[in-house]
Structure formats: C-alpha cells, structure tokens
C-alpha cells in the first residue's frame, strides 16, 4: 500500500531503481543485457605494491590506474617523487606489452592527499592552467593513456562549482593537445563520492557539478565503499549494496547519481577488495551493529581480501553472508570483519550491469587472492 502511493509520485527512472531491490529481477537469466562495448573493468594499482605491474592478469581488466601522484601544494605542478621515478616506468613498461592490452591512467590525489591544495588550485584560471598543463606533460612524457582526479573531497559548493570549471578547461586542453600531437586524446576520469551529494563529511551539503561531469569526463567512478568503519563505535559493512535503515548503500548512491542526471553509461562503480575490522566490546555480541571499541588489534582497521581469508582460516572464524545487505562478515574472538567475497561482488556486478553502468573498478589490484574475485567479477559482467 505504502509502496503504491510512492510509485505514483516517483518518476519511471526511480521506479526502476527501486524495483531493483527485489533481487530476483536482475539475477534472472532471462534478462538480456545491452551489448558490452566500451565497458570498463578497472583497478587501481597503489604504487610500490608487492604486486609487480607486469604480473597483473589483464584478462580481467581493461584499465589500470597508477595510484597516486600528487600536485605541489603551492606551484600546482605535479610532483614526481623519487618513488614515482622508480615506479611509473615499471608500471608503464610492465603493462605496455601485456595481452590482452589495457589502458593506463595516471591518478592524481587519493584519500591521503591535500584537499585544500586542490581547492586553491581549482579557484583561478591561472592555477588550473598550470595544473592541467603539468598533468598533460607528465602523462605524455611517460606514455599514459589518460588522467584521473581523486579529490577527496570538494569541501563546499564553491569547490564543486570550480571542479566543474576545471573539468571543462581540462577537457578542452586535452582535445587541443590531441589535435596538435596527433595522438589519441588522453582520457579524463574522476573518482567521486558514492553519492552525487556529499552529506556525511565536511562542510554540509554540496552536490557534484553534474553537467560538467556529463560533458567533459569519459566517466566518473563513485567510490562505493568506506560506508562503515572503526570511526563508528558499532560493527557494520564496508560496502553494503542495500541498507533498509539508511541511505549509506551502493543502491542508494548509484541511484542518486543517475537521479541527478548523469547517464548510467558514464558511471563506473567502485568495489572494495578490502574489509574493515573492529574489536568487539563483547565477543558474544557479534552481529551487525554490535558494540565495538575501535580497531581490531594489529591492523589500522582495514584488511585486504587475501588477508581476511588467512585470518578466517587461521582463527577458524565464523563466516556469515548477509543476503539483505549483500555483504559478508566474519568473527573470531573479539575481532569482527565486514567485507566482500565472490558471491557479494558477483551480485554487485550484476546490479551494475542491470543498471546499465559503464563498468566497475576495484580498490585495489594486489589485494585479491590469485585473481579469484577479479575473475568472478569479470564473468558476472559477461565479458
Ligand atoms: C596543503 O595545501 C595548503 C595549500 O597550499 C598548504 O597551505 C598546506 O601546508 C598543505 N598541507 C600539507 C600537509 O602539506
Ligand atoms: C599551458 O599550455 C598551453 C598550450 O601549450 C600554453 O599556451 C600555455 O601558455 C600554458 N600555460 C601555462 C600557465 O603554463
Ligand atoms: C556510541 O555512540 C553513540 C552515539 O554517539 C552513543 O550513544 C553510544 O553510547 C556510544 N557507545 C559506546 C560503546 O561508546
Ligand atoms: C534518504 O534519501 C532520501 C532522498 O534523498 C530522503 O528523502 C530520505 O530522508 C533519506 N533517508 C535517510 C534515512 O536519511
């Protein structure tokens, strides 16, 4: 009854988004997907990772991002550190002759980067131009196929508006450079908040510049993870697909992006290859939402997928699949871990396909166990 009332008020688009909640729809084998051309199966490669770029199994990927390079906080030129000097050539050369081929993108920023410096850079035409020129210079010098911005996060409406101008000028500069150099235009992408409006962190409500994203980016990549972590004093999922009690879910986030006017074909959905681990207040109270007292010992609160498998095995952990959230958790003693495994990743990728998205990406290559999840995701995508 309540649902009927809602349906009348909502646009057809939202009805589609809502109806996905009955899982059966997008899991049905009768569902015919649109052709899969130009789709994206991507992963970030954190520089210096144990995994050598040359050993990335590119069967499962179309694009790999180098993560991360930083801008200088005053000059706004990209800074190539000693470590970048070592890793960028290994990255490019390691992936240059791989089969099947992948495209490489240089990602600027990341979670630990200086958000204020992005804000200042984006404010004036001159500083944007210095930054843009530097990104093109570095990308061409090393042979990248594209550029990616991971600004976490624009802090207010002014930042969001300047971000839109940055995208426009950046795109124009890339088009011009391609004409002059007679090379294919560098791709331009951005990692963005899981939802189109940032609510929960920083300075109040601010929405992404949707029109600029549509016009000037090849795609935007909502980071559909980090929903709950040890900053909460209760256990929860890192990346629930659904949450009946809140808007902190991938279903809500992707729906908000499409609802804001960004075509599904411009969205590449984030998937985590890591979980988050709490120390339980009471080992006998170990469900979702159980009281917790900070990070599980010996981790900073995150555990890579391959490490979680080892933890579960060594500690004979209880593993639970939450069908409603489409996520896993495991616990042993006072340690509680919320994470994703093959079946939840598969359902999320099916969701991305059903929604008509351009693709998905992982944070990060090197956290998988023998490409198990990467393979299952690729299969679910229907590659
Ligand atoms: C971040 O950038 C701002 C603006 O340029 C600068 O004032 C500040 O010192 C930087 N912070 C760090 C930690 O480098
Ligand atoms: C940026 O590059 C363009 C094209 O090469 C050039 O005309 C312009 O002067 C450069 N701007 C700055 C601030 O370096
Ligand atoms: C957790 O946080 C909530 C809200 O801030 C508070 O009411 C509750 O007492 C806290 N619990 C613990 C165990 O700290
Ligand atoms: C979720 O988002 C919708 C639409 O943006 C809003 O109306 C609703 O109040 C939100 N729900 C919660 C629990 O925040």
Automatic annotation (TrEMBL):
| Stored PROSITE patterns | GH18_1, GH18_2
Annotated Gene Ontology MF terms? chitin binding; chitinase activity
Signal sequence interval, chain numbering: 1-22
Show where the GH18 domain sits.
Answer: 39-383
Q: Which UniProt keywords apply?
A: Glycoprotein, Glycosidase, Hydrolase, Signal
Q: Which GO terms describe its cellular component?
A: extracellular region
Per its UniProt entry, which superkingdom is the organism in?
Answer: Eukaryota
Recorded hits in CDD domains, A to Z, give: GH18_plant_chitinase_class_V
Q: Which Pfam families match?
A: Glyco_hydro_18
GO terms in the biological process aspect are: carbohydrate metabolic process; chitin catabolic process
Family, according to the entry, reads as follows: Belongs to the glycosyl hydrolase 18 family. Chitinase class V subfamily.
Q: Tell me the protein's name.
A: GH18 domain-containing protein
């Amino acid at each position: 009854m309540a649902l009927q009332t809602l349906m009348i008020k909502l646009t057809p688009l939202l009805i589609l988004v809502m109806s996905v909640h009955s899982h059966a729809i997008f899991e049905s084998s009768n569902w015919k997907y649109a052709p899969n051309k130009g789709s994206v199966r991507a992963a970030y490669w954190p520089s210096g990772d144990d995994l050598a770029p040359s050993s990335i199994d590119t069967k499962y990927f179309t694009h790999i991002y180098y993560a991360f390079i930083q801008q200088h906080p005053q000059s706004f030129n990209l800074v190539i550190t000693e470590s970048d000097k070592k890793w960028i050539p290994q990255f490019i050369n390691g992936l240059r002759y791989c089969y099947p081929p992948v495209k490489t993108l240089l990602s600027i920023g990341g979670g630990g980067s200086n958000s204020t410096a992005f804000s200042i850079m984006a404010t004036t035409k001159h500083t944007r131009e210095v930054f843009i020129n530097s990104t093109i210079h570095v990308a061409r010098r090393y042979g990248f196929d594209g550029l990616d911005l991971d600004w976490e996060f624009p802090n207010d409406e002014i930042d969001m508006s300047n971000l839109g101008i940055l995208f426009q000028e950046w795109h124009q500069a890339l088009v011009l450079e391609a004409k002059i150099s007679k090379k294919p235009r560098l791709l331009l992408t951005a990692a963005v908040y899981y939802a189109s409006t940032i609510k929960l962190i920083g300075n109040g409500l601010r929405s992404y510049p949707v029109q600029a994203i549509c016009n000037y980016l090849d795609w935007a990549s909502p980071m559909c993870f980090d929903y709950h972590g040890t900053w909460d004093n209760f256990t929860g999922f890192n990346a629930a697909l659904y949450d009946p009690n809140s808007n902190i879910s991938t279903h809500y986030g992707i729906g908000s992006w499409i609802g804001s006017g960004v075509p599904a074909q411009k969205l590449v959905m984030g998937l985590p290859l890591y979980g988050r681990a709490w120390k339980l207040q009471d080992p006998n109270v170990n469900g979702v939402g159980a009281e917790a007292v900070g990070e599980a010992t010996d981790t900073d609160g995150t555990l890579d997928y391959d490490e979680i498998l080892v933890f579960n095995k060594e500690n004979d952990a209880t593993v639970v699949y939450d069908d409603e959230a489409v996520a896993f958790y495991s616990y042993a003693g006072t340690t509680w871990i919320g994470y994703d495994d093959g079946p939840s990743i598969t359902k999320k990728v099916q969701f991305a396909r059903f929604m008509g998205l351009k693709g998905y990406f992982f944070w990060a290559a090197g956290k998988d166990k023998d490409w198990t999840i990467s393979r299952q995701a690729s299969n679910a995508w229907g590659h």
